[in-house]
Amino acid sequence: MTGTSPEAVRHHYDVGNEFYALWLDQATMSYTAALYEDGRDADLEHAQERKIDYFATAARAAGAGRILDIGCGWGNSIRRLVAVHGVQHCTGITLSDAQAEWIAQRPDPRIEVHVESWADHRPSATYDAIFAIEAIEHFARPGISRAEKMRAYRSFFESCHSWLRRGGTVAVQVSVYGNSFTGNFDPFLSSQVFPETEPPMLSELVEASERLFELISLRNDRAHYAQTLRAWLSRLNARRNEAIALVGSKVVTRFDRYLRLCICSYESGASDLHRIVFRRIDRPVTANREPVPHER
Amino acid sequence: MSADKTRQEIENWMVAFLAKELKLRPDEIPLDETLTDLGLSSREAVFLTGELEEFTGHPVDPAIAWEYPTIRSLASHLAGATRALG
Fold first, then answer.
1. Contact A53, A28 (CB under 8 A)
2. How close, in Å, is residue A264 to chain B by CA atoms?
3. Which residue in A48, A152, B5, B63 is deepest, having the highest Cβ count within 10 Å?
């Protein structure tokens, strides 16, 4: 297995919905970097909604018929896409049972959720857009060769290519190694917080998408991640006693330390946070075929 | 909320904490040595900020030890900050 195992994913995300609800934003319960406008005092709730809205626009997903959300978390993106952006149907997939149960508590005919890996997903029809908001970090595990890692990323883009309609888009938010080397993922984070997780380098994702997708936009928002993490840390510590009652002081300390380490990592640039939109290349060139310049 | 900690209390707490972490005797820990020179890794320095937040009852920035790298400077800053916030 190349990516994070379902057990390892559950280790982190199944700590308990009530625990995460204490310190994630109330509006969307997003567990990914928010998008702040200028000014550091913007509130987390709006910044999380703005992130979803940004991708809806950048990936031309507004009014779309069908969208797939890989690693859908607690369903914040798919709910907002159907409620605010006029998307007709969203499919979310997650490896976390707790997240799927959470979403099922508020049924909506326009959304469906499956507990499965993206690699096992078999769509019933093509999608207009695919979202992968901080999911790719789990596609590789530490210790695998670069070739294996690249095969996993390539396979992801090949799957997306086959699942999308002509001209469809992939919206990616991903934490990557910045001013650091592959394997520099902090040992505390990789052993106790995100087991079996190896972030990509930006270059690996770009290479893995070549001749399948064209990159149409990219922004590095690492400062936004630091600000998001600061908001989470401050909320967690404001409700520390409730958190300890739910999950115990050892787990709370683990989360306190992980949030602090990540703040330093994004502020120093050891980690970057990229928001990327890819557009499907409908006639990918193949090795034995010369490209025709005027072909579209 | 307990009473705000004084500089002395924070220093004492840090010395006891570092003695335990670094397996040193408290009298082996000079207040003006940088935490790095005392043998604390940058990761442990970040963890320390969480412990300090719990001890002081006030927010402690995760990267504070880069700006105030010694026990004395950090304790003095935190005592001032808690008074200002208190």
1. no
2. 6
3. A48
